[in-house]
Design brief:
The protein is of the alpha/beta class and 161 residues long. It is 48% helix and 22% strand. The protein has 6 helices and 7 strands.
Length: 161
């Protein structure tokens, strides 16, 4: 059963099919690991450094390039994702938007000495966890929990360092 419906921007549509399928697998495995009970819809965009810097400045007030931005649609209370009946359409929940800077991902893959597939997979799993309510900026316990989860998911997919 397919758990993800993607809304892709033009640049994401132009990713090689094998790479795009890997990112869908990353999303599906993250949802499965979190036992997300609905089909999910996610807007997934690939962009450049200039555009992600602009988004980061406009949406977060941080005027610098970043590798990925996540824009969750649902609220959380005490770390628990709150899904209301009005959030569910035909057993599907729109989780939010993921925006990745391809040049930044390429540079990070080279700097860390691993493949672009591994870097994009990492950024995708990380972002889906954000859409599900995880936030590593909430302190060391939250960061540790999130990072352990993402590493376990990546390892299960075979995207190890």
């Amino acid at each position: 059963m397919r758990m993800i419906s993607l809304l892709l921007n033009k640049q994401a549509e132009e990713l090689p099919e094998q790479l795009l399928q890997l990112l869908v697998t990353c999303m599906e495995n993250t949802l499965a690991a979190e036992e997300f009970p609905y089909e999910a819809e996610i807007s997934f965009s690939i962009t450049n450094d200039e555009e992600i810097r602009s988004l980061n400045r406009e949406q977060r007030g941080i005027d610098r390039v970043t590798d990925v931005l996540s824009f969750p649609m649902l609220e959380t209370e005490g770390g628990i994702l709150m899904i209301e009946d009005t959030d569910i359409t035909e057993n599907r929940v729109f989780l939010g938007d993921i925006v990745i800077s391809l040049p930044r991902a390429e540079a990070q893959a080279a700097a860390y000495g691993h493949s672009l597939s591994r870097e994009l997979g990492f950024l995708t799993v990380h972002s889906v966890l954000h859409l599900l309510g995880y936030d590593h900026e909430q302190g060391v316990p939250a960061e540790t929990e999130m990072f352990q989860k993402q590493e376990a998911i990546l390892e299960a997919i075979g995207l190890t360092r």
